[in-house]
Amino acid sequence: MSRTKTRILLTMASLLATSIAAAGSVGAHDDDGMLGFSPAAASAEQALEQRFDAQLDPAELRSWLQQMSSQPNQVGSPHDKANAEFMLAKFRAWGWDAHIETFSVLYPTPKKVALELLGPHPYTAVLHEPVVAGDATSGLSGALPPYNVYGADGDVSAPLVYANYGMPDDYKDLARRGIDVRGKIVITRYGGGWRGLKPKLAQEHGAVGCLIYSDPHDDGYAKGDVWPQGGWRPAQGVQRGSVADMQVYPGDPLTPGVGSTAGAKRLALKDAQTLLKIPVLPISWADASPLLQALSGPVAPANWRGSLPLTYHVGPSTASVHLTVQSDWGRKPIYDVIAMVKGSTAPEQWIVRGNHHDGWVFGAWDPLAGNVALMAEAKAIGGLLKQGWRPQRTLVYASWDGEEPGLLGSTEWAETHAAELQQKAVLYINSDTNGRGFLGAGGSHSLQHMVNQVAAGVTDPETRVSVRERLRARLLVNGSAEGAKPEAKLAAELAAKGGDLPIEALGSGSDYSGFLEHLGIASLDLGFGGEDDNDGIYHSRYDSFDHYLRFGDPDFAYGVALAKVAGHIVLRSADANVLPLRFGDFSDTLTRYVGQLHQLVDTMRKNTAQQHRLLDAHAYALAADPTRPVAPPARDSDMPAIDLAPLDRAAQQLAQSTAALQVAYDQQAAGLALSGAKRKQVNQLIGSMEQRLTDSDGLPGRRWFRHFIYAPGMLTGYGVKTVPGVREALEARRWDEANRYAMATARVLDRYRAQVEQLTRLLRQH
């Protein structure tokens, strides 16, 4: 997807961002039985999962990956459609009721891209990724040139300014040096933040164009040997990607909130909020080097310097740069493959599983390594169907198209079927890329215990311990290393306690957004990584089958491991007597988030007091020697009282209510022998609980995002902001808004608590 996939989903940082108190939750250890199952049903479920596992064949994953990555696979390509049709035939052969659902989306493709340095030392950029020996597909035709989709067309000539990673603090540094980017073309390097923020911030600061290059310091020869000797980005490798303003809304820019069906009402291009107004182009470090050498002005700060053999200057350049981007702004079809198995006893509840199939070029790692794991699950489930098993709940497997440009396929499908999904879908399980190493899992914290139980039962292919215990060991090692950061030490302390490891909160960047953050459906994102060398070919022509065989998951053992983890979650969710969600884990995590908000307020208040002291010192210096004026420090607005009491109250009351629910559940857990009608009521309440964390008015300035606990940050791209209405208002010093959203979020939590209490009363009935 259009997010950097280098992160391990269960990282030390995310552990701190979630609830450290989670280890103390009721029933946090593995002696409490399989969540949602009676002991007898748990034994049957384990036997079913063993039969499922026996059908997973790594040779099939390899064969499917080789076929699906054999031609360029971007939206609108013939092979993209062929892959959808290939999967459709497979699903049907495996016993699924499958179809292709087509949407028509705005998808600009480049007609002309050009970049040249003018002046006494002219240079014309190559803007092409050459053939690489040993990479069989690198010379194939049919791929689009490197581009950033949803940037504007333009033909501009202007001096160049280097803005490091192009993040907000970088522009503050430029301003302190007296460097103005108005009327300039900005060049930034990849990394430090999501790519779409780089041209957006350049545009907001008055730039007329933006270039984004890959510095070898971040994903090239400074990291290791480059492709084909090693896995890292070669000199002319380019990272493609979307630059749509997806923090406002993902999906088709012309149909926010509704599916891009044939009769959908569409915005005019000029009215689409997520489209940029300046041209943007991604380039390689080989093409960036002559441009950077042409910069004059101050030497860049130490932390702005990459690994190129040149002195990094900030600029501006003495010679102008000429940038041209011209696109075909037509619509393209996208092809979602949707397969279903109807549930036997609770068909009205859906378990949805998804991965996307479109790539930027060949897409072997991103996304097809995850997609073939989904296919393996679907085939194994088909085998269980032939053996006579049927799920209690309905299974929906989806291979999305158009994810790379902006979560198009999943968003349009979710928007089209919004009412039905909110009525029926109880869980969405996502994957994207897959490598080798450590399991990652992020999502709704009510799913945390089930994820831990499943992870404890899947063996890591390399170490032969469970994938959960392998991660635990890693956290312990990292936290005990000399010079370990405080967050690593705290994560190690948590791991040492045993029991559950917290899952991370989700921001955006993959196909769960429409389900979790728009519709309020409990969601997970799964994958393995940390030991593969795929970062250097991210979103390039070299994300190929040959590269994946050498530097991804050569024997597809982790593809099978992903299929086991995701498949077991699907099977347990489908057949559990009571849906396997535990709301005390969410409550513990929420308490942590509210505590973080208090810490943020305290820190900002201390910073404001420090500013006042500096201003007083400046006034004293002026009075002592008026002939030597000293520039005053910048002053933020004074910080009024911030009232987080509504959130404190809501979190405390929710903790009490979830504890009472746990007691009521434990009293039922010995048998879970609920009557049919009562079980249906219980599962309906559990399955719709996440929707209580949403509000139809949405978040400030972006109504599409309705979840009041998890959202991508407006200035973090895909990175999550928890309790976003309050946190982002505080960070932006919008004090009135912070107080309003503390109240609004508390009301949302009270609605959630009310449903928890309704569920408790139902479980207590005899």
Give structural notes.
It contains 23 helices and 18 strands. The chain has 766 residues and is of the alpha/beta class. The strands form 4 sheets. Strands 1-11-13-12-14-16-15 form a 7-stranded mixed β-sheet, with helices on both faces. Strand 2 and strand 3 (123-124) form a beta hairpin. The radius of gyration is 26 Å and the shape is globular.
Gist?
With about 775 residues, the chain is of the alpha/beta class. The strands form four sheets. The chain has a seven-stranded mixed β-sheet with strand order 1-11-13-12-14-16-15, sandwiched between helices.
Low-confidence stretches: 2-29
Order of strands, main sheet, comes to: 1-11-13-12-14-16-15
Biggest β-sheet strands, sense, barrel: 7 strands, mixed
* Portion in beta strands: 15-25%
Structure summary, number of beta strands = 18
